[in-house]
Amino acid sequence: MAFHDDSVSHGRDGSAPGEDKLLFQPNISINGQIDDETVSFFLGRLETVRKNGQDMIMELNTSGGDADAARRMALEVRLFRRHSGREAFCVGKTKVYSAGVTIFAAFPRQDRFLTEDAVLLVHERRMETSIALNGPIRSCIQIVREQLALLETSQRLEMEGFRELVEGSSLSADELYRRATENCYINAAEALSLGMIGGILR
User: Fold this and answer.
1) What pTM value is reported for the model?
2) For residue 1, what is the DSSP state?
3) Which pLDDT does position 69 carry in this prediction?
């Protein structure tokens, strides 16, 4: 049985696809790590969805991956919704971790669903790098400035993603960020109670 927030409309005609279609008939399935190959696969499937004049129904099960690859996929979801004249729905199954949340957040909250066992993992973007300073002071300062600009840009993009995920919910972006600093696990029931999803599919 599918449990929905009745205060939220689903799609332009006021209803989401049936539970069977959401659970068992996705036209885009993303399972596994998010990387450049995933982006290529996704774009190919998305082109087929466009050509067939279908709504997008994605199932998503991932332990995360490359943040920028996820951002590209999220962009394509937004573009599809904006320009195709069709609807886009996402069902998170079992685990939607890290970069997967970036993709999940690109769907409006009323059009994203979780299976009852699903868990979201939201955390700060992680970076591992070494900075070698060797040369004139001016050159070293420039290297540090470039790295700082990269970190600041990453943080800005991260906050944009947090705001998108919590839009229309009872959770603020600042509160989500605070929780993300300690690795924030949100199960399906909590996501529904916070108003972050349209329903739980059972």
Assistant:
1) 0.81
2) -
3) 96
Q: What is the pLDDT of residues 2-41, one digit of tens each?
A: 444 433 334 445 567 999 999 999 999 999 999 999 999 9
Number of domains in the chain: 1
Q: Which residues contact 107 (CB under 8 A, 6 or more apart)?
A: 58, 77, 88, 89, 90
Report the C-alpha gap between 58 and 56 in whole angstroms: 6
Checking DSSP bridges between strand 184-187 and strand 119-122, what pairing results, if any? antiparallel
Locus of tokens 């990387």: 35
Range of the domain at 17: 2-201
Please report, for the domain that includes residue 79, its CATH number. 3.90.226.10
> pLDDT tens, 128-173?
678 888 889 888 889 898 888 887 767 776 777 778 888 989 999 8
Contact predicate 118/49, CB 8 Å: no
